[in-house]
Amino acid sequence: MANYAGVVVELTAKKINRSFDYTIPIRLKEQIQIGSHVLIPFGPRKIEGFVVELKEKSDFPQTKEILRLLHDYPLFDEKMLEVIRWISEYYQSVLIKVIKTAIPTGIVGNKVQVKTRRVIRVQVFSKEEGEKKVVELKKRAPKQSEVLEFLLRYPKLEMTATELATRLKTTYSTIKGLKDKGLIIYDEVAVQRNPYDDNNFSPSKPLRPNFYQHQAISQINEEIEKREEITILLKGVTGSGKTEVYLQVIAKALTIGKDAIVLVPEIALTPQTVDRFKSRFGANVAVLHSQLSLGERFDEWRRIYKGEVKIVVGARSAIFAPFQNLGLIIIDEEHETSYKQSDQVKYHARDVAIKRAKLMGAVTILGTATPAVESFYRASIGDYKLIELPERVNLNPLPPIKIVDMRQELKKGNRTIFSRPLDQAIQKRLTEKSQVILFLNRRGFSNFVLCRECGYVVRCENCDVSLTYHANTNKLQCHYCDYIEDPPKNCSKCGSNLIKYFGIGTQQVETFTKERYPNARVARMDVDTTRRKGSHEQILTAFREKKIDILIGTQMLSKGHDFPDVTLVGVIIADTALHFPDFRSGERTFQLLTQVAGRTGRGKEQGEVIIQTYSPEHYSIKAAKTHDFDLFFHEEIGYRKEILQPPFSHLINIVIQDEKEERVIEEAHLLANLFQSRIYDEIPIEILGPAPAPLSKVRGKHRWQMILKSKDGELLRQISRELMTKYYSEQKSTVIVTVDVDPLGML
Ligand code: ADP
Ligand code: ZN
Ligand code: ZN
After folding, report:
1. Which of 253, 419, 439, 742 falls 20 to 30 Å from 197 in CA-CA distance?
2. How many CA atoms lie within 13 A of 97 on its CB side?
3. Is the CB of residue 373 below 6 angstroms from any atom belonging to ligand 1?
4. How far lies 625's CA from each of 188, 309, 367, 496, 577, in Å?
């Protein structure tokens, strides 16, 4: 048995990755394991730590003793530790941060506890003895007698004193009387906080798969039976029945004793989605996402830990669900950028899934209608197995897409946001009483305020971005830091009153829509209308119940919702994402348009999509018109190869931030020198920058960046790790330096 434990602790401000040796006291020998959460003396303080190593001997002559075990069970096992170590190394994050990411929030700092209730039990005695007591009490204390009789008759009912008193119409003192006589005891029992308890799930049976679903299911089942690691890219058009495939292969995994994780983008994790899994698998499903309270999440995690459930449906961090027999990981909408965590540990759930699958011999399914360029590339070179669902279940063809060139509309004198084809199509739906979705990927009313005299644009005080006008509050608002100010009457630079609002947002679309179609019931769904808990679901329910004719929304609307009566989707401007300074802007645009188009024609009626754009010739828009992923991919992969961007290279983005610009510039150059002195001609790493980041100031912090690029990802990460370790160990400046491995956005 081990005498020493290697413990990792949080050292504020220091990016130290080592563990510290502690003696395991005899009384804790049986209990301390890998993953144990312990209290240890550290200098003059007592702090929390996690055991990551057990050993016979320590190299240190003097080690202190572990003081206490903070949880009576380990929070991760050796396999999970391997995943944690891998993340720490690959993404260059300190181990303790990765551990905190992988375990339930609130464990550290003891912010979550098992919820208990104090129930009443009869003091153990035989049936005859009990009945004798009941009779004895009858004369002097009839109420006490009644309570005791009740408890004897229903020994399994776990009721609190209050519940019991209410149920038997008596008082607390009656119960206390029984307690004083030693006839009953109080007992603490754990209760399960289950946020979905009161929902009613009507049971669902497997649907008869169509030809393509059948093929997909049998191929995946074959892989599940092999119990070997493999990644499958399930490319299925929207409405092709991917979820039914998931449900049936999960059932397969369960029959061979395996557990399954299903990841869904946070905003698609609606009650509707949860319902589909719960109604098939009932209480066998745990749900993990950030809308749950810490306590609820902790309880769901414990249900998984204890093996009480076999399936978890959750957002990104559910990839760490503590299953022992993981056999299947499903990542729905795998192209979604929200699978990459953007703060703290910058891991991508897809890559963590594949790593976990390797260790567990599990099957990973990446499901999507629009694969990430990197994923499809990997399928095309044989790293992933490709399975396709090319048809919609209802056999409706994908909706026809009309592209409207807004430059032509302008030429013909139409200055409104509704082109004539879109206008006619909306009118038609309103008379037919079917529903319309209008999509615009920008909230607010107008996205910048400009002085026509001198060209001055009103910007945020804290961020290098223009302020957005919000009509309902009559304020200018920053979408990065929520800074708010009143709209100017005069230009603050030249004093002119020729202030004009440019660019449209969802609020303005709402206003124009109401003006143009006064009889239509119009609603809007974006960050601003869904701040309150539950409001998101309220809008969707109203729309589903046909209390809304036209729903206007951002990206939020594009995912996972099934609205059978929507027969028209209009994209107000397709170009908003196209001109982002990011090599993935074409990919984002194609994905977005395809997802949005998928929202129509899901019922019996044929749907129609109208996309308004100023760039009809762009291949992302052309490919979206014909629902042609292959065409898009062909163009995009050629472009990526030409400019040597992923998947033909690997990137690391190093961002330097501080309130003081000089300090940022100084530190950026210091870092650049460090890299330049290590990277000679024969080392195939390119250093881009340092330069101001495209978003050069956010929340009062100036930002510079340096991008490292190489064909050799392994070498790139190794050198970056080596130099950053050196940098951190010598760092004097207090500027914040963050490393993003495989960045998805570089603003
Ligand atoms: P996707 O996730 O590929 O967009 P869904 O799984 O949401 O598609 O399926 C679209 C609709 O088709 C759902 O309403 C689903 O219940 C239904 N469906 C799926 N498979 C079948 C089937 N084999 N038979 C009948 N209906 C099906
Ligand atoms: Zn001006
Ligand atoms: Zn701001």
Report:
1. 253
2. 20
3. no
4. 62, 43, 22, 45, 17
**DSSP-based three-state secondary structure for 636:** helix
Rounded-to-integer distance, Cα 389 and Cα 382, Å: 19
Higher-confidence residue of 193 and 303: namely 303
Q: Which ligand has the shortest distance to the CA of 564?
A: 1
Distance from the first to the final alpha carbon of the chain: 51
Amino acid 188: pLDDT: 79
H helical segments located in 92-141: 95-102, 127-140
Q: How far apart are CA 278 and CA 247, in angstroms?
A: 10
677: Cβ contacts below 8 Å, ≥ 6 apart: none
Q: Which strand ranges, in their side-by-side order, compose the sheet holding 385-389?
A: 285-288, 311-314, 259-263, 326-332, 363-368, 230-236, 385-389
What's the CA dihedral at 470, 405, 745, 271 to 10 degrees?
A: 70
Structure tokens at 49: 């730590």
Which ligand is closest in space to the CA of residue 467?
3
- Mutation to probe ligand 1, out of 204, 212, 244 (largest number of atoms < 8 A from CB): 244
Full DSSP string of 55-68 = ES--SSS--PBP-E
Residue 369 CA: nearest ligand 1 atom is 3
Phi/psi region, residue 601 (left: phi>0; alpha: psi -120 to 50; beta: rest), is: left
Whose atoms come closest to the Cα of 697: which ligand? 3
| Dist. CA 566–CA 373, nearest whole Å | 29
| Residue 276: how many other CB atoms lie within 10 Å | 17
Asked if pLDDT for residue 605 goes beyond 80, the answer is no
DSSP 618: S
> What is the distance, to the nearest Å, from the Cα of residue 136 to the centroid of all Cα atoms in its chain?
62
Cα distance between residue 190 and residue 731, in whole Å: 48
Angle at Cα 616 formed by Cα 563 and Cα 376, nearest 5°? 65
In the predicted model, is pLDDT for residue 629 greater than 60? yes
Q: What is the DSSP letter of 10?
A: -
560 pocket-lining for ligand 1 (C-beta < 6 Å): no
Cβ neighbours around 646 below 10 Å, total: 19
Please state the rounded mean pLDDT for residues 698-705: 91
Backbone angles phi, psi at 688, to 5 degrees: -105, 120
Task: Give this prediction's pTM.
Answer: 0.87
**pLDDT averaged over every residue in the chain:** 89
pLDDT at site 199: 58
Query: 489 CB under 6 A from ligand 1?
Result: no
Q: pLDDT tens across 522-559, in order?
A: 999 988 888 887 788 889 889 999 999 999 988 777 76
Whether the ω angle into residue 647 lies within 30 degrees of 0, i.e. cis, is yes
Greatest mean pLDDT among 450-459, 675-684, 715-724: 715-724
Residues with CB in 5 Å of ion ligand 2: 451, 453-454, 456, 491, 493-494, 496
**562 pLDDT exceeds 80?**
no
Check if 208 has its Cβ closer than 6 Å to any atom of ligand 1: yes
